[in-house]
Specification:
By secondary structure, this protein is mainly β. It is built from 5 helices and 23 strands. 8% of the residues lie in helices and 25% in strands. Strands 1-3-4-9-7 form a 5-stranded antiparallel sheet, with no helix packed on it. Strands 2, 5, 6, 8 and 10 form a 5-stranded mixed sheet that branches. Strand 3 and strand 4 form a beta hairpin.
Length: 437
């Protein structure tokens, strides 16, 4: 083993203010060494006080080599680690190939070990639907293989933290936004008291099958064997998704109930509330814009369904009625005349992540399939949406957001909502959320 000159670096992430009285995890006794044959770098450290999520960065001469080069790590990292003497191994030949560094090269290698309080976790969470393991990553670049890896579209659920705690936003649209659709979009302020995670992608058919194979076995309509796995699950009912009212935990036999059980009920996975969904969709962009910051076109400013004119820029961020080959779309009638069940992803739904993400790295927030929310549907401004969904009309309708491959652009706006009647439809799917306490 070759031992490098070590300039010890360690950071401790403070607990949330609400938990300020709790012990804060700390890291000490960091040592670093490298195997002369495999080039694997071993980092030993001691974690004290509290369990914590451990992440690693590597610096040369005080400069980070970049999280995209440090993702190949084994051992006590990127997960909740118990206090005590711990170790991790970074494999530079996997994630930082063709780079030479040795103790005689004048390079000072630094291991930056960070302890995150478990109630203040890093930005990305990856829940392995096969093993039941949960890993955390500091940024998109740190996610092994990158966020577009097929793993996160089939057998692992990748989620992104939305930093909403203590923030407010205006839900709905101003009346002069192109495509505005009356009182169901009337603006009102929503304040958040919690951060939350939300899926980077819609739940796919393979992910559904991995967790709930006995719950409507492979229910989706768009399921050509060559490409079905990474397309969004659809054609699902409320009973299969959740089974119980929106103010009670999901039923044990439902998809969400089984998903929670897979991870020992340590995560209250659920549908996002309509306010959570819209805030994440907007991704910090204001009115008159799509979630990636591009402007909503004035071509949506017609009357009624005539607002469904093709928007070239929009076609780059969403699967919609104009960029799939499933049939003939009528803007005047607002309908898509479908052909037979599609044969590939040029028709109907697309593989998740096929279009440009929004400003927070979330894919398909506009288009592909309508996304069902936890709230009771509110079709007017008398019962505005809030952070925590209430019961209300939960047994009859739920809001669906984002529109689908069957619709034109104006319905895809962040503020638009449709009342879903709990029955299976080939253009309605789900995205998973988890609210932090």
């Amino acid at each position: 083993m070759k031992t490098f000159v070590l300039r010890f670096s360690s950071f401790v992430v403070a607990a949330l203010a609400a938990q300020a009285s709790a012990a804060v995890p700390s890291v000490s006794n960091v040592t670093l060494s490298q195997d002369g044959l495999t080039r694997a770098v071993t980092v030993n450290y001691t974690l004290a006080d509290e369990p914590a999520i451990i992440t690693l960065d590597i610096c040369t001469n005080g400069v980070s080599i970049g999280q995209n080069n440090v993702w190949a790590i084994d051992g006590d990292a990127n997960k909740v680690v118990q206090p005590g003497a711990r170790s991790l191994v970074w494999h530079p030949d996997k994630s930082w190939p063709n780079q030479k560094f040795a103790s005689g090269d004048g390079i000072e290698l630094t291991a930056v070990v960070t302890a995150w309080a478990t109630n203040d976790p890093p930005m990305y969470l990856a829940a392995d639907l096969v093993s039941g393991d949960v890993k955390y990553y500091t940024c998109a670049e740190a996610v092994p293989g990158g966020v577009q890896d097929i793993l996160y579209k089939t057998t692992s659920l990748l989620m992104r933290r939305i930093y909403a705690r203590g923030k407010s936003f205006m839900m709905g649209s101003p009346t002069d936004e192109y495509g505005y659709f009356g009182t169901r979009e009337k603006q009102h302020e929503v304040s958040f008291s919690h951060d939350y995670y939300i899926g980077v992608y819609e739940v796919t058919q393979q992910q559904w099958q991995q967790i709930a194979s006995s719950v409507a076995n492979w229910p989706s309509h768009h399921k050509n064997d060559a490409c079905k796995a990474a397309r969004p699950v659809e054609n699902i009912t409320w009973a299969w998704i959740r089974n119980t009212a929106n103010t009670t935990p999901p039923g044990n036999t439902s998809f969400l109930g089984k998903l929670r059980a897979k991870f020992g009920n340590a995560f209250d996975f659920d549908l996002p509330g309509a306010a959570q969904w819209e805030y994440a969709c907007r991704a910090g962009n204001g009115n008159y814009k799509w979630g990636d910051g591009t402007a909503i076109s004035s071509s949506l400013n017609g009357a009624g369904d005539k607002k469904d004119y093709e928007d070239t820029a929009f076609n780059e961020i969403a699967r919609n009625a104009y960029n799939n080959a499933m049939g003939t779309y009528s803007a005047a009638a607002g309908t898509l005349t479908t052909t037979s069940e599609n044969v590939d992803t040029t028709c109907g739904t697309a593989t998740v992540g096929s279009y440009r993400p929004n400003s927070w790295g979330l894919y398909d927030m506009h288009g592909n399939v309508w996304e069902i929310c936890l709230d009771a549907f509110s079709g007017n401004d008398a019962n505005p949406y809030v952070e925590t969904p209430t019961a209300g009309n939960a047994s009859v309708y739920h809001p669906a957001k984002g529109a689908s491959f069957q619709r034109g652009p104006w319905r895809h706006r962040a503020s638009f909502q449709f009342g879903w009647d709990l029955t299976a439809k080939q253009d309605f799917g789900i995205r998973v959320a988890w609210t932090l306490e």
